[in-house]
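User: Run a structure prediction on this.
Assistant: Running it now.
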Amino acid sequence: MLFAAGLGTRLKPFTDSHPKALAEVNGKTLLEHNLKYLQRYGIEDVIINVHHFAGQIEEVLSDNSGFGSWITISDEREEVLETGGGLLKAAQFFEGEEAFVVMNVDILTNLDLGRMIEFHQSSEAFATLAVMKRDSSRQLLFDEYMMLCGWANNNTGEQKISREVMEMQPFAFSGVQVLSKGVLDMPFTGKFSLIDVYLHFAKTEIIKGYDHTGNIFIDVGKPESLEQAAYLFE
């Protein structure tokens, strides 16, 4: 699943009249970049949630035959539901799947997704979250075994702790996750973040961090990051 419903306020003025998924890097939209990225790892059946200028995304997908992928639209035109609510609304489309990949449309990375999927399967984790050692105002906290313990906002000092441990390591979340189907049984409704879902399940389930520090990673949230991405991604 690609999360493409957000308002993309950091990419103004482009997002005043377009969805962030259609911002371009070297003549290709973020949508195309990430559909092709998923295809490299054999993922061709993709759910995309839409809200902000949803019709533009649907038109581009139609005009380009889904860029070679089978696309299912999860329609959030009435209300954008954030990452957790967006996944829950799309839960019906994952029927019969044991595990699946979810990622944000506004990131670009050379993370080896195949290895991350293998790690998820071998660790029998409930969820596996791609993380890096990099500066971020909000970070996930892990124990020595890279099991999720909590979350911290470095600007406000706020913390949400799921499990108390002696020492916690902070990592920045990369917006890529491999999830087992049990995550869809989340005890939330409406609009909410997937981070809250992970913090809830971390109390009783194995939520693992997958450290890909050293990989290329760009959160394409601002015009200047689009320029940076143009040097790194074809």
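The chain has two domains: 1-98, 111-215.
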